[in-house]
Each structure stands twice: as C-alpha cells, then as structure tokens.
C-alpha cells in the first residue's frame, strides 16, 4: 500500500519531481507504484498532479486543513485507482455510493492498528512505511463525524475541480443527501466541558505544584489562555504564517487589554482580557524574567520552549495540557473522586475552550462572547453554548399530564 502525499513541507518537492519525471530520485516507491501498479500510468500521473495542486491551494490555510484533506482524498484516489481501476474524474454517482459502502465496511488490508508515519528518510530517499494504511482501526466502527468529514472533503475537491474545468459534475451532494448511514442531527447536543470540580483540580493542582516545580508556570498560563480566552491550541502555536508573540497583547486608550489572535481561515480577531487573566499574565511573565506587562515591540513567544528558542507547535502545547490533566486525574483518585477522574481521562485540550465559553455564556452578552470566540455567525455561538431555550422547553414539559 503506497501513500501518494507526504507532509505539507514536502509537497513542493513532490510537485517538482512529478513535473520533472524525477520521482525516483527521492520517492522511489511512489515512482514504482505509478509505473507498475496503476491502471494507466499517464492518466494517474495527471490525476496526482491535480491532487497536489488542490492540496497546495487548501494547505496554505493551515497545516491542519492540509492534513485533513490529504487523508480523505488520498484514500479516495487509491480506492478509485486500485479497486475501480479508473480516474476519480470518471466516477459516476453509483461509484461514489460504492465508495461510501467501502468506507463503512473497509477491507482489513486497508486498515492499520494505529496512526503510522507515511515516509521516512532512509539512505537519502523518502521510503514508505510498510505498516502504513489509508484507514486506522476504530473499535466502534465509522463515526458520524468521519462520514461528515469524508463528504465535506470530497465535495470541496469536486467543486475545486469544476472551477479548474477538470470535470463538470459533482455527485457528492446527492449521494450525501440519500446516504443511509448519515444520521440527521436533531437531538440536544451539549459541548464537551469539564465539570466545576474537574476544572478546580486541573487548574488548582497545577498552581499548587508551581512552587515545587516552577516550569509548571507555563502549564498554568496555557490553561488560563485556553479556558479564560476561549483559545484553540492552534491559535497559541507557531504556524508558517503566524507566530504568537508577547507584543500581540495590547492595551487601548481606555486601559482595556486585548490579545490579537489569528484564528481559523486566517482571520484576525482581538480577544478581550479579564482582570483575573491579567493577574496570571503578570505572574507568568515574571516567572520568565520579563516585565509584568508586555511592551508593543516585544518579540518573545507567548508560550515558550524550556530549551531552544521560538514558540511551540500544536503537539507540544497539547502535551503541556495533558500533563496538567494527568496531575489532576491522579489527585482526584487520591481524594476519592473516581468517577470525575475517569471522565477527565476522556477530556481533550479543546474542552477548555468549551468550558470557558459555556460558563461565561450565563452572564456575557451573546454578541460579545461570539466575537471573542471568533465565530463568524452569532447563531453558531447560540447553537453551541446557549441552553436557555432547551431549559425553558424542559421546564414547560416537566409538568405535562398523562
């Protein structure tokens, strides 16, 4: 099983090698696959060049967007080439329906037990990992989120192909509309949040440990940013087009503080800072040997590395959060809160954003909350975090007589 796409950073090299017919000099496995294992080498080479073009355009938004589309479209290409023996641009509606069936009941040889790297540098070549597979095993089968992501990626891909005049048809919307596996969401869905007790332990235990282990001041401040400012981890991390630094904190003429953030879709927004958060900002900066408040020209990264220079990536910040979660899980168990401890084991860093927004939705104007969250539509904030209508409906229904 041969992957077709490497990392975002390597994409430009893949494009150049494909155009110059020099894949064998760096990617011999892809070169062999295209020459010997596909139904039509020249047709597949043209399809692959278009895939690289598509990923280059959408990968410029963010690495996360690139990875999401790469995973979905790459496996779709492999299915079309290896099983249907045809180009992705010759597939009909019934073929797309067949692909959905394939995703729901994937063949064992297409599934890996865990996430695997695609390529690794070996003796000057980018060689394929023999354990890599297009799909990863899920104990509970294909989730609604997986299916939704698949349809989104395929729909965006074919819309792009139409704009580029590579095809004139997109069967994805009609297949999605009639898909028997997609469940229409009409039930009450609450965001994943930490309970008050869990947050008290996550933040409190980290804060207590700072006296013995000063490096945990970084953990404490990261928690404050994610929960108190409703940030996504990606908004705190270094990215090719944005590096969060201390000068992104700024104060207006009335003395109010803000943090300038680049959010999803490369949209800039200014998040308001609470007085409580500013106290932890001062504490964190003093622990780093900086002045209590940022200057307008300060280049220091917001979340710093303990070794080396520059900011941190998403994975490194996620590890910081998990370290505090693990400390809280252990302490909850010691104090007899086994159920809270078990539930916290399922939490992710994104729960902190939901926790802060859900709590503040009870007393902040919806428009203000929506703007700090970075939602393009106020209806999104209302749908996710405002539970007033649900509670009112429950109150009016609880007294019904049989």
TrEMBL record:
Q: Name the InterPro entries on file.
A: DNA_brk_join_enz, Integrase-like_cat_sf, Integrase_catalytic, Integrase_recombinase_N, Tyrosine_recombinase_XerCD
Judging by the UniProt lineage, the source's domain of life is: Bacteria
Gene Ontology MF: a single term: DNA binding
List GO terms (cellular component aspect): cytoplasm
List the Pfam families hit by this protein, alphabetically.
Phage_integrase
Domain Tyr recombinase: where?
189-399
Classification via PROSITE patterns: TYR_RECOMBINASE (PS51898)
* Record-linked Gene3D superfamilies: 1.10.150.130, Intergrase catalytic core
Cellular compartments annotated: Cytoplasm
Supply one GO BP term: DNA recombination
Entry keyword annotation includes Nucleotidyltransferase: no
Q: Which UniProt keywords apply?
A: DNA integration, DNA recombination, DNA-binding
Please give the name of this protein.
Integrase
Which species is this UniProt entry from? Pseudoalteromonas rubra
């Amino acid at each position: 099983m041969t992957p077709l796409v490497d990392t975002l950073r390597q994409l430009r090299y893949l494009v150049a090698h494909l155009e110059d017919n020099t894949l064998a000099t760096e990617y011999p496995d892809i070169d062999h696959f295209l020459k010997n294992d596909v139904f039509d080498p020249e047709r597949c080479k043209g399809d692959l060049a278009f895939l690289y073009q598509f990923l280059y355009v959408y990968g410029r938004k963010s690495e996360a967007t690139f990875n999401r589309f790469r995973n979905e479209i790459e496996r779709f290409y492999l299915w079309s080439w290896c099983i249907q023996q045809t180009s992705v641009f010759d597939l009909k509606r019934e073929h797309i329906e067949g692909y959905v069936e394939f995703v729901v009941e994937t063949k064992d040889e297409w599934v890996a037990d865990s996430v695997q790297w695609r390529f690794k540098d070996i003796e000057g070549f980018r060689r394929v990992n023999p354990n890599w597979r297009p799909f990863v095993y899920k104990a509970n089968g294909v989730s609604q989120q997986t299916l939704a992501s698949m349809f989104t990626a395929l729909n965006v891909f074919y819309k792009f192909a139409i704009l580029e005049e590579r095809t004139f048809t997109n069967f994805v919307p009609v297949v999605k509309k009639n898909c028997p596996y997609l469940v229409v969401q009409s039930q009450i869905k609450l965001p994943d949040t930490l309970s008050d007790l869990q947050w008290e332990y996550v933040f409190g235990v980290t804060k207590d440990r700072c006296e013995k282990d000063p490096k945990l001041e970084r953990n404490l401040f990261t928690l404050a940013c994610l929960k108190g400012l409703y940030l996504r981890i990606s908004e705190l991390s270094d990215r090719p087009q944005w590096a969060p630094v201390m000068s992104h904190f700024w104060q207006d003429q009335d003395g109010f503080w803000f943090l300038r953030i680049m959010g999803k879709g490369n949209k800039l927004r200014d998040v308001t800072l609470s007085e409580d958060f500013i106290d932890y900002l001062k504490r964190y900066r003093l622990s780093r040997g900086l002045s209590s408040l940022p200057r307008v020209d300060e280049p220091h990264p917001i979340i710093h590395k303990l070794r080396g220079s520059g900011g941190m990536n998403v994975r490194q910040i996620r590890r910081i959060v998990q370290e505090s979660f693990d400390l809280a899980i252990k302490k909850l168990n010691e104090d007899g809160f086994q159920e809270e401890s078990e539930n916290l084991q399922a939490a992710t860093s994104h729960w902190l954003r939901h926790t802060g927004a859900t709590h503040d939705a009870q007393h902040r104007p919806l428009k203000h909350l929506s703007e700090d969250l970075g939602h393009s539509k106020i209806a999104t904030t209302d749908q996710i975090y405002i539970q007033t209508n649900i509670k009112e409906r429950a109150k009016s229904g609880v007294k019904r007589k049989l």
